[in-house]
Automatic annotation (TrEMBL):
Originating organism: Streptomyces sp. 900105245
UniProt xrefs under SUPFAM superfamilies: Acyl-CoA N-acyltransferases (Nat)
Full protein name: GNAT family N-acetyltransferase
Entry EC no(s): 2.3.1.-
Residue ranges of every copy of the N-acetyltransferase domain listed in the record: 5-155
Classification via Gene3D superfamilies: 3.40.630.30
Length: 155
């Protein structure tokens, strides 16, 4: 991979489509998640963050749910946001893109007055999130046929 990358909130339709394309590549194609469950009604109200290479190629994405959209995922606590759909393309893994996306999503949560961020981590990614200050809680559970654990980080 050549060149640095930048992060931005995906506010225009082209950026949103780039976020969805990364999710399709990582979750649907690579991990076999059913496309019908990858995209949901929360996408319309989420804050989407996009990482792009200097030449505009999308490298990663993630989203923040807050307010009523996050309630179902966070136990109903309005002070807790929900980080989800974090995906980094194969070419960008190991370059810090995932960690930068998490930090950008946390910044978006802070800007909205949230006190903590929850997420549902695939179990193979627990160490990644632990290094970023997240703590697992509760039992392992399946999501889209993939083992997950709930995690939280106070902001």
């Amino acid at each position: 991979m050549s060149g640095p990358y930048t992060l931005r909130v995906a506010e225009d339709p082209a950026d949103r489509e780039a976020c969805f394309a990364v999710r399709k590549e990582v979750f649907v194609v690579e991990q076999g998640v059913d496309e019908d469950i990858e995209y949901d009604t929360y996408d319309a109200v989420a804050v989407h963050v996009l990482a792009v290479r200097a030449d505009g190629v999308p490298l990663g994405t993630g989203r923040l749910l807050h307010g009523p959209a996050a309630a179902a995922k966070t136990g109903g606590d309005p002070a807790v946001g929900s980080l989800g759909r974090l995906a980094v393309t194969q070419e960008a893994r190991g370059l810090g893109v995932g960690a930068a996306l998490v930090r950008a999503i946390e910044d978006a949560a802070r800007a909205r007055g949230l006190a903590a961020v929850d997420l549902h981590a695939q179990t193979h990614a627990l160490g990644f999130y632990e290094r970023l200050g997240y703590e697992a809680y509760g039992p392992e559970f399946p999501d889209a046929g993939i083992p997950h654990r709930a995690m939280r980080r106070a902001l």
